[in-house]
Amino acid sequence: MRFAVLVKANNDSEAGVLPTSEQLAEMGRFNEQLAKDGVFLAGEGLQATSKGARLRFDGGRTTVTDGPFTETKELVAGFWIVAGKSKEEIVERFMHAPFDGGQVIEIRQIFEVEDFGENATPEIRERAQRTWKQVK
Q1: Helix residue spans in the chain (DSSP H)
Q2: How far is it, in rounded angstroms, from Cα 68 to Cα 86?
Q3: CA dist 70 to 22, 34, 48, 65, 75, Å?
């Protein structure tokens, strides 16, 4: 199973405050351990929303809104994509993530094509496999 671990934004991340050298080193050690354990698939920090955009799709019309976005409690500041046998395993690993000061992370299982049952027709499954082969 794959999981997305989402790091919630806060006022500092939205203001563009960068981690200290010590914080970067600690995060690097945490990521190295995830990689050594064979569960790390990807992980990155995201720039502040002031450098981003939102697209809203409604009634065949798309509206683009440039950042920044004011409500930080719903924003994502970074992510990991990790593999594990269960949600509980991933929760246990990330209980040791190098965060403090009220930082929030969210763990969400990623859909696999098999999760869509018979709605994922053979053609849809083949297309998904072909697409993922191109990016791996």
Answers
A1: 11-14, 21-36, 87-94, 122-135
A2: 35
A3: 29, 33, 11, 12, 9
Average pLDDT for 69-84: 88
Buried b (16+ CB within 10 A) or exposed e, 109-130: eeeeeeeeeeebeeeeeeeeee
pTM of this structure: 0.89
Q: Which numeric CATH code is attached to 2-135?
A: 3.30.70.1060
Which contiguous run of DSSP H or E holds residue 60? none
Instruction: Output the pLDDT for position 70.
Output: 77
CA 67/CA 9 separation, integer angstroms: 14
